[in-house]
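Input:
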Amino acid sequence: MKKRVPLLITFITGFIIIVSFFVPHRPFGQLETETLIWYAIIFAFTLVIGVDSLVRLHIKHIRKRKKGWWYSIVFFAGFFYCLTIGIISLIQTPNIFQPGTVFFYGYETILIPLQATMFALLAFFVASASYRAFRARNIEATLLLIAAVIVMIGRVPAGYKLWPKLPVIANWIFDVLQIGAMRGILIGVALGAVAMSLRLILGIERTYLS
Amino acid sequence: MKFWQRFLNLDRKWIFLGIGLVVIIPLLFPLRLPVKPSKPVIDLFNRIDTLGVDNGVVWVVTDFDPGTMPELMPMTMSVLRHCLTKGTPVVLHGGLWPAYIGMAKMAMDNIAVEFPDKKIGEDYVFLGYIPGVTAVILAIGIDIETTFGTDYYGVPYDSLPMMEGVKNYEDISIIVDISGTRSPEYWLMYGQQRYGVDVGIGCTAVSAPSYYTFLQSGQFVGMMGGLKGAAEYEELMERYGYPTGRRPATVGMDAQSFGHLLIVVLVILGNIGYFIVRRGERKVGIERRKE
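Output:
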């Protein structure tokens, strides 16, 4: 029973999704949308489980004084801050993203500058890491290095100024070499996903139950 | 050899300083290096440019957060400016995830300042965020009014004059998904494949390579890839006499040009140093073995 019920749910849902994709007319076409709404609702519950797991983990870190445990305190500060301003904003208006809410104020004044700073730091670390790690140690690494240098210079206006043919070569790398490899990867991934989905729907793959 | 050994062990603070300088100086003193529009950007520009007042609305989605804002906000602003100058009705959808609504709000605030004569609800509409991700894309295909109910400011959908007669994808001429996530794939799978709506995208430079395949197959109408794509769109806007603002992407490309050049110079010097040091170490090894 413990295994049969989830297997049956997986089979029915998977079957509905497949049928509704190929038969977009009513009632099948509607079923896909309905299933996705169900998915959104179930997803909201999984968030609760995620929060529970995260909170437990950080409590454990603080209790056991694990290395970097004080980062867990920072986590709790951020967690309770978001929770508090979220609840206050919900009391103010049903849409917490409306202008004038405490939540939106926090979004604009804290989240935006923090995220922008984090991403801006990437430029410094990418430069430092590529300088230290990008070495022509073998043929494959050398080919990668040459392609990277051409693309990096060819895709910026300075490259065109240096040699007008450089962007043409960079575009050729993108349009021919890159697309060929990427298409192969995408087809491989898609076939793998189809195979895995069929295994799940037919109940052959059961590792998610354990 | 000692010089190269010291060079290879260069403190990363100096690299940080170099990057900081080559990024800040061009931002303060823009050179406006020439930007040559590429085919994917020209295709997207032409698709929007051929639209009139009665060809259906342009649906712009802001699927990005503050981290990718420098690349993606100029694209959003350019597309909005393009539509509003032409008088093409435009809908701004605040993204498929909650954290992206702030970006749409920011774009809306700028538009209100730049186009004071354009009226919200009549010339453009700001629909907020609705949870559901793929379910939202599918629901738009059935009924937009039922999906959103109101605009971002709480005005009922049926009170928005611009949205009169706009029911589903059949009334949308193109979806322009400006994205720092995998959302273009969702719009492709559920919007383009399922309902046949045209999809154009703006994405970060990092994710652009993944979408070239869909571009070549014609599944995407056009694409702006990274800051380069945004700068190319700005260039086309200027060429055709549309307002461009202060062209933030073009200014940013100067900084990116010098940043890339510095990284390439560092990589080349690093490799020269690596080979000189390695050859020197081999020589010393051979001599020691001889002794």
